[in-house]
Write a structure and sequence with these properties.
heterodimer, A: 207 residues, Rossmann fold, four-stranded antiparallel sheet, 6 helices, globular, B: 267 residues, 2 domains, 76% helix, Putative ABC transport system permease protein (chain B), UPF0014_fam (chain B)
Chain lengths: 207, 267
């Protein structure tokens, strides 16, 4: 059963003159419920920018969730609100279910996973299953903004499409701003309301 | 009962056995002969020197000499802990944390034991203070160095897991929890094993020494139990402090994992 949309919590995520690694002066406003795709050559600092937004890497500039500045929240509280799903997910317990603190049967179904998945051993999972479960694990914690690092890299075309649809619906339903690292122009066309690209040390908006 | 005096030529017979072992391993190309002989030589030289120092110390029995000796032992132990770690905290933190942890635990347990439990007159009498502190420091050093080495090595190996847990919004204590428990365990295992095996599998060295030197077994046993307990307390609290301080230092004020604070292993 889908939870009712919680528009009260909907907030934008804004970056003001952020600098990390080779990237300089990155300013960006991510509106609630909208997906912004981020692309750029490999090694250009996409993942590092996401890590800086999640405050896992020292950086300069001002990052805010709504009115709340990053530095005013403790590190873990910020990351609970602005959640990063890395390209390669990590699992620390034996069972899949031990990584989830909420029931998420509806999500399993939407992502094409069997309802028994939560009872499986992590060692049994394929890379595609891990990737989808990592998305579900993050979203089950109800973040207020989501940063995705190539969330469909290990998925076949049909699963990619259902995954994109589910993520788009989650963004709208919870009013979450999403920053999505993607390479495939077709995917960017399908999911993104906005598209930004890293060129050299700058971030450029692509129409 | 008198102690049978041990002559130097008798010790050299024992040394011959070590030399024989070194020769055999060298012939078998096991490459342990050289470090074995160096360690054996160090034992002989260090213990001979400490014998001289202790004789002088017992003769004077002045507090400042006992204190100086204790501090020297502590600093050497701190250096040993540092060199036994493959990846250590940079900038003197590895030495600082381990020395402080050993100071807090070994010194307070020793002082407590001397003043409250054993009660020699004066309380710092070197015949009691130095051997007790030595046994405590030796064991605490092992616990602290095993735990710190395990902690830094495992954090390095499991860095992606720890960071993924941080990304999901876990506080740093929770993200590093498994690694911390594992480090504490490896620091305490030798002590727990020694207590569990004492008297059944092994006769502890101190008790054996006391019996060889003519003490009644019942008294030797009491001292051994006392020493086992204070060693456990000293090792445990020292390891606890070292694990807590080291894991805190691996994260910054934003709860980021800071592996740049660890050195890279040489070779």
């Amino acid at each position: 059963m889908p939870a009712p949309p919680d528009t009260q919590a909907a907030t934008s995520l804004s970056l003001e003159a952020v600098a990390v690694g080779a990237l300089e002066d990155v300013s960006l406003k991510l509106a609630p419920g909208e997906i912004t795709c981020l692309s750029g050559p490999s090694g250009s600092g996409k993942s590092r920018l996401l890590r800086a937004i999640a405050d896992l890497e020292p950086h300069e500039g001002d990052i805010r969730l709504g009115d709340q500045a990053q530095a005013t929240l403790p590190g873990h509280a910020w990351r609970r609100a602005v959640m990063l799903v890395p390209a390669e997910s990590q699992w620390w317990a034996e069972d899949v279910g031990a990584h989830f603190d909420r029931d998420c049967q509806a999500g399993l179904e939407a992502l094409g996973l069997s309802p028994e998945t939560l009872g499986w051993q992590v060692a049994r999972l394929s890379s595609g299953e891990k990737q989808r479960l990592a998305l579900l694990r993050a979203l089950s914690r109800r973040p207020r903004a989501l940063l995705l690092d190539e969330p469909t890299a290990n998925l076949d075309h049909a699963t990619t499409l259902s995954c994109e649809a589910w993520l788009g619906e989650q963004a709208r339903q919870f009013g979450m701003p999403m920053l999505w690292v993607a390479h495939d122009p077709e995917q960017i066309k399908r999911v993104a309301q906005h598209h930004v690209r890293i060129t050299g040390s700058r971030l450029e908006t692509t129409p | 009962m008198n102690v049978i005096a041990l002559e130097w030529w008798q010790l050299s017979l024992a040394a011959l056995m070590v030399v024989a072992l070194a020769t055999c391993t060298t012939l078998a190309r096991l490459e342990i002969g050289r470090p074995l002989l160096i360690a054996a030589a160090r034992t002989a030289v260090q213990l001979t020197l400490i014998g001289l120092v202790l004789e002088a110390l017992f003769a004077s029995a002045r507090f400042q000499w006992v204190a100086m000796m204790a501090v020297a032992m502590l600093l050497i132990a701190g250096r040993e802990v540092m060199t036994r770690q493959r990846r250590r905290l940079r900038g003197g933190w590895a030495f600082g944390i381990s020395t402080l942890a050993m100071f807090l635990s070994s010194f307070s347990v020793t002082v407590l034991t001397l003043t409250v439990i054993v009660g020699p007159e004066p309380w710092y009498a070197p015949q009691y203070a130095i051997p007790l502190l030595g046994m405590l420091l030796g064991n605490t050093m092992t616990g602290v160095s095993l735990a710190m080495d395990r902690l830094t090595t495992n954090v390095w190996q499991q860095r992606s897991v720890i960071e993924n847990r941080l990304m999901l919004g876990q506080p740093w204590q929770e993200a590093i929890g498994d690694v911390r428990r594992e480090a504490m365990r490896s620091g305490m295992i030798p002590t727990i094993n020694a207590m569990a095996a004492a008297g059944v599998v092994s006769l502890p060295g101190m008790m054996t020494g006391q019996i060889l030197a003519g003490s009644a077994p019942a008294l030797a046993v009491k001292y051994q139990i006392l020493v086992m307990f204070i060693i456990t307390a000293g090792t445990g609290f020292g390891t606890l402090a070292a694990v807590a301080a080291t894991s805190r230092r691996l994260f910054d004020e934003r709860e980021r994992l800071r592996l740049d604070r660890l050195s890279t292993p040489k070779g």
